[in-house]
Amino acid sequence: MDDIFLATTAAGIKSVFTGSDNNYAVYTTPTYHQIFATSDTMVVDYAIMNLKANGVRLLRLHLQRIRDVWTGPAGMTDAQSPYLQYLIKTVDPLLGQMFQALKDIGVWDDTYFVFTADHGMGTMTASAHTPPEPSAWDPVLIFSGPGLKKGTTIPYAENPDIPVTLMHWFGLPPLKGHTAANVMLAQKGTTGVFLSNLYAGAPADIPHPKYIDQYIKGGLQTTEDYAPYRDGMLRLIK
Q1: In angstroms, rounded to a whole number, what is the distance separating the alpha carbons of residues 92 and 36?
Q2: Could you report the per-residue pLDDT of 56-106, keeping only the tens digit for each?
Q3: Residue 214 domain-assigned?
Q4: What is the distance between the alpha carbons of residues 97 and 215, in angstroms, rounded to a whole number?
Q5: Domain CATH code at residue 105
Q6: pLDDT tens digits, 19-48
Q7: Is 189 domain-assigned?
Q8: How many domains in the chain?
Q9: Rounded to an integer, what distance in angstroms lies between the CA atom of residue 8 and that of residue 57?
Q10: Domain coverage including residue 60
């Protein structure tokens, strides 16, 4: 995530990152950054304040507290579950406030949105996303904005594609990715691709290395430990 904040800052574009878990306090490269560890409401309020008072153009909000009411995958299809009720009664109104703020300052029609998660969820009652569970690799990913397709699905995308595509929306040069001499990769650069197939009239599919798909289908380790995953992904990228 640092790459998009560093690139936009270098171009004079103000940014904000705010989230509701202390894990994300390490992200200090945005122009404005603040963590509210127990409140999604404060996250959205902070983003709106910086949108209206400071003219930020890149906003990243991480609403984390939905995980507090997760009791297992059955809650995703039960309208009365605490999980869906939190989405309906808390998250949806907060998004409505964010949308209204964008309309208030006159940028609604020119705004691109990416709604996603950093992971899918597991199949246990605990709020976890363990690598051995295929569902943990399958987060939601929704794009919306001027000139993009509506009501359709592209065949494939990965989260690393998001920052690459964002740079195109901002009209900025492509991200350089891994270029340092000590990075031991035969093919350096970004591991994401520009999702040109999001645009209305574009072909449905584009060339994509599908690293995550390769990892899952290639029989590589999906243990609880991070190290084997990192090693396996680096071998794919090489």
Answers
A1: 19
A2: 999 999 999 999 999 999 999 999 999 999 999 999 999 999 999 999 999
A3: no
A4: 39
A5: 3.40.720.10
A6: 999 999 999 999 999 999 999 999 999 999
A7: yes
A8: 1
A9: 9
A10: 2-208
